[in-house]
Amino acid sequence: MPENEYDVYLVPSGKRGKDQNIVSPVEGDELEFYDTGVWLHRKGGRNFFPYEQIRTIREHGGEEVEASE
């Protein structure tokens, strides 16, 4: 299981977002930062999001924690 998981929240992008059929947040298990945007690796492939299209990136642990009694 991946160490961390990421949720990329997108700004409303009008026609472009509807054409791509991408629903925010986009979930992935690896994130690569570049000068113009990020590559988000997820099940079935990866997506590139330019920074102006990103509202928030949320990182959270991918490990499940067992509750002790």
Question: Which key features would you list for this structure?
Answer:
49% strand, 3-stranded antiparallel β-sheet, 69 residues, SH3 type barrels, mainly beta
Summarize the topology.
Blueprint: E1 4-10, H1 15-20, E2 26-28, E3 30-33, E4 37-42, E5 45-50, E6 54-61
Antiparallel strand pairs: 1-2, 1-6, 3-4, 4-5
Approximate shape: globular
Amount of beta strand:
over 45%
Instruction: Determine the number of helices (DSSP H or I, runs of at least 4 residues).
Output: 1
Strand order of the largest sheet: 2-1-6
**Terminal residue distance:** 25 Å
Q: Pairing-aware structural class of the strands and helices?
A: mainly beta
Question: In words, what does this structure look like?
Answer:
This protein is about 10% helix and about 50% strand. It has about 70 residues and is mostly beta strands. Strand 3 and strand 4 form a beta hairpin.
How would you sum up this structure in a few lines?
The protein has 69 residues and is mainly beta. It contains one helix and six strands, in the order E-H-E-E-E-E-E. 9% of the residues lie in helices and 49% in strands.
